[in-house]
């Protein structure tokens, strides 16, 4: 992909995200608030997965044997 192709792809993905979730009808500050909450929740989910998943898998493995 050329440089313009990547920019076009990112713009289309951004438009699809805004239209699919309905963010296009929100004020800019509301969009920032929504995206901030979404990023915070995703960050907490990733952190919890990294922190607790190995222990949970060890526990499940111990139950199986």
Count of the separate structural domains: 1
Low-confidence stretches: none
Order of helices and strands: HH
Radius of gyration: 19 Å
Number of H/I helices: 2
Main sheet summary: none
- What distance lies between the first and last C-alpha atoms, to the nearest angstrom? 50 Å
Helix content: over 70%
Average pLDDT figure? 93
The count of strands amounts to 0
Overall form: elongated
- Structural class, by secondary structure, is mainly alpha
What does the model show?
Pfam families: SPT_ssu-like (PF11779). InterPro entries: Ser_palmitoyltrfase_ssu-like. Keywords: Endoplasmic reticulum, Membrane, Transmembrane, Transmembrane helix. It is found in: Endoplasmic reticulum membrane. This protein is mainly α and 65 residues long. It is built from 2 helices and no strands. The termini are far apart. 0% of the residues are buried.
């Amino acid at each position: 992909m050329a440089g313009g192709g990547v920019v076009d792809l990112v713009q289309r993905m951004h438009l699809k995200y805004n239209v699919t979730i309905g963010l296009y009808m929100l004020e800019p500050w509301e969009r920032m608030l929504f995206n901030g909450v979404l990023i915070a929740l995703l960050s907490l989910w990733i952190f919890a997965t990294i922190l607790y998943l190995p222990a949970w898998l060890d526990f499940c493995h111990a139950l199986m044997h």
